[in-house]
Design goal:
Blueprint: H1 3-13, H2 22-34, E1 39-42, E2 48-51, H3 56-80
Antiparallel strand pairs: 1-2
Length: about 80
């Protein structure tokens, strides 16, 4: 997806809860470009845009981050909802 589509997908998938600001998204995408991730393409309305995809390394890192998020989430749940 291209940057705007990524932000839109996050907002839609989160049911309008998570809004990714341009000031957060585009610097992250710029870091991907430095690593050689991203290629030019055309949007549905024929505009030029850079497209990004999750690499194998990115998929591995996502798994690590999800596990850590779930660990922290469980800890917070234990604190706010004691047995």
């Amino acid at each position: 997806m291209h940057g705007f589509a990524i932000a839109d997908a996050i907002l839609e998938t989160s049911e309008d809860v998570l809004l990714v600001e341009e000031g957060s998204l585009y610097p992250a995408l710029q870091r991907l470009l430095v690593k050689g991730v991203g290629e030019w393409g055309r949007t549905q309305d024929n505009r030029r845009a850079r497209y990004y995809k999750l690499t194998a390394a990115g998929q591995k890192q996502l798994g690590i981050e999800v596990k850590e998020y779930l660990r922290v989430n469980r800890a917070i749940t234990r604190i706010i909802q004691p047995a």
